[in-house]
Design brief:
The complex is a heterodimer. By secondary structure, chain A is an alpha/beta fold. Helices cover 40% and strands 24% of the residues of chain A. The radius of gyration of chain B is 20 Å and the shape is globular. The longest helix of chain B has 27 residues, at 201-227. Classes of the chains: A alpha/beta, B mainly alpha.
Chain lengths: 250, 321
């Protein structure tokens, strides 16, 4: 579904990514792992149009999406979450999700300012859908809370609900388990599986090995900007090069 | 939703009753300007308080509205209402065109760019003497009328201006509670997150900039037709800063706050006559005090006061200013 072809990214003299290629298959959870500095987040930022690549090509269902800005990618069905959750702090939890439904609504300046009937209908529909999404991730009881007042774990769930609101076909998650305790991580794993069951393809950039090994269908290992290995969790766990990269060479 | 409507109805009722409670003609005249400044402050607040984008060039749009309206009616004999509409559209188009390059900038750079734009327009008003009358001003702008109703007294102007101001406030409140308002606040909080969710931040910023310019242009036309004489000094950099002070003192992101700020900064100079040229020092001090102790503006102050009073004695809420 999402195909990465020979992505290279050079910052000044530093090669952050060197000819990385892999594919995320439709309906699967693909994990991207690697030690610190392997280039995982850089790769995600390149795919989602936040950084520019030096070379390479990215396609989504065969369509070239390299270098498109984030708002265009969202309209094509690709969305991401952030490692340091980027919530709209002053807005309520419900409103945060409603922003996610921005592309699912049409009303322009005039319709909004004059409260035209179709705008009010749309507003009601958005509210309903937002509540359903909060229900899905399990924080519907916090709908009225200001997002800035959420505990970190709940904030993570809100960010996922908000990303799901754009009705993505593929969701890229940047270290969703970072900062979560083990119980929250375990719940997150269940949630990601539930998201896959709704037909959304997931690319998971993650540090937490246990989570990755537990839920991923396929894993890509990066090290020092290069792809080190690719395969099922089982294959990866037994790959000597991966073990060396993580534990250090003898 | 309903509560918001009641709040607005109450506010509108107060505004419409005020003229009956004051006898002085002069105060009424000042209140007309409070109405115009309210429109301007609301326009700037949409941009600054919601989308988080600064503009130090609002006075230029205000002046363009006034001059276009004045020139089209006095020089070319147009109907004032047509002139007003054309002026608003022209100002909107200008804002839309300059918005794309200008709003690429952020923070101080955006402030500088809008400041520069304001100064350019101010120079045009001063130097294009054949058309604008230059520094000595432009007179003979006809007043507005609806059929046989001529808006020639302070009382009639008051109702005209405040009807427009209330309309602008209502539309602004509606806008801020809609998907557009949410998207604007989202851009303010985290532009990158808003974009990832599919919000076209660049276009939306230009659109709200245009919207605030149109409101300023309208206010300018109303000013020209009410005062019938315009001169460049009204539309200088100093006034852009005054508008900024109104919005911040009233409360960023609060439409009613903008009205409060406009009222305070328009009425205050009348009571601060003794300070004369030092009024800018008073504005500066006010701005410092507000941002230090009441960053949410006067509206936040009133909310705190109201909660405090409710704790003491349930029932009555205090409203003054």
């Amino acid at each position: 579904m999402l195909d990465i072809h020979g992505i290279t990214c050079v910052f000044g003299g530093l090669t952050a990514l060197d000819d990385v290629s892999f594919s995320a298959r439709s309906g699967e959870i693909t994990g991207v792992i690697g030690p610190n500095g392997a280039g995982k987040t850089t790769l995600l930022n390149i795919i989602t149009g936040i950084y520019t690549r030096t070379a390479g090509r990215i396609t989504l269902d065969g369509r070239d999406i390299s270098g498109l800005p984030p708002e265009r990618l969202t309209r094509l069905g690709l969305v991401r979450t952030f490692q340091n959750i980027e919530l709209f702090g002053k807005m309520s939890v419900l409103e945060n999700v409603m922003v996610g439904l921005h592309t699912r609504s049409r009303s322009g300046f005039l319709a909004c300012a004059c409260k035209l009937p179709h705008h009010l209908r749309e507003e009601r529909r958005i509210r309903e859908q937002a509540l359903e999404l909060l229900e899905f991730v399990g924080i519907v009881d916090l709908a009225g809370t200001a997002a800035a007042n959420l505990p970190f774990g709940k904030g993570r769930l809100l960010e996922i609900a908000r990303a799901l609101a754009v009705q993505p076909r593929i969701m890229l998650m940047d270290e969703p388990a970072a900062g979560l305790n083990s119980r929250e991580t375990w719940q997150l794993g269940d949630l990601i599986r539930k998201i896959r069951e709704t037909g959304v393809t997931v690319v998971l950039v993650e540090h937490d090995m246990e989570l990755v090994m537990d839920i991923c269908d396929a894993i890509v290992v990066l090290n020092l900007g290069k792809k080190l290995a690719e395969g099922t969790p089982r294959q990866i766990q037994e790959n000597p090069e991966v073990i060396a990269a993580y534990l250090g060479d003898e | 939703m309903r509560r918001e409507l009641i709040k607005f109805a109450l506010f509108a009722a107060v505004v419409l009753v005020i003229p009956a409670t004051i006898k002085g003609g002069y105060l009424l005249n000042v209140l007309v300007f409070v109405g115009i400044n309210t429109m301007l402050a609301v326009g700037l607040n949409l941009l600054l308080g919601f989308a988080g984008q600064i503009s130090l060039g609002q006075a230029a749009f205000y002046g363009l509205g006034a001059y276009l309206s004045g020139i089209l009616t006095a020089t070319y004999g147009w109907n004032p209402w047509t002139a007003m509409a054309v002026a608003a559209i022209a100002v909107g188009i200008l804002a839309f065109v300059i918005g794309f390059p200008i709003l690429k900038l952020k923070g101080h750079y955006l402030a500088m760019a809008t400041l520069g734009f304001g100064i350019i327009i101010y120079i045009v008003f001063n130097e294009y003497v054949d058309v604008t009358g230059g520094p000595s001003g432009f007179s003979g702008v006809p007043g507005l009328s609806l059929g046989d109703l001529h808006f020639d007294s302070d009382l009639k102007s008051y109702y005209l201006i405040w009807t427009m101001a209330l309309l602008v406030m209502l539309l602004a409140v509606n806008l801020t509670q809609s998907r557009i308002g949410r998207a604007l606040r989202a851009i303010h909080d985290s532009e990158v997150a808003a974009r990832v969710l599919g919000v076209n931040a660049r276009l939306l910023k230009v659109q709200v900039f245009t919207c605030s310019a149109i409101i300023s242009g309208l206010a300018g036309s109303l000013y020209a037709h009410t005062v019938t004489f315009i001169s460049p000094s009204t539309f200088g950099f100093h006034f852009s800063v005054e508008l900024l002070t109104m919005v911040i003192i009233g409360g960023l992101g609060s439409i009613y706050g903008s009205c409060l700020g406009a009222a305070l900064l328009t009425l205050l100079p009348e009571f601060l006559r003794t300070f004369q040229d030092y009024d800018i020092v008073v504005y500066g001090l006010l701005l410092i005090i507000m941002t230090m102790f009441l960053p949410g503006g006067l509206v936040q102050g009133f909310e705190l006061l109201w909660m405090g009073m409710r704790r003491l004695r349930p029932g009555r809420a205090g409203r003054n200013a």
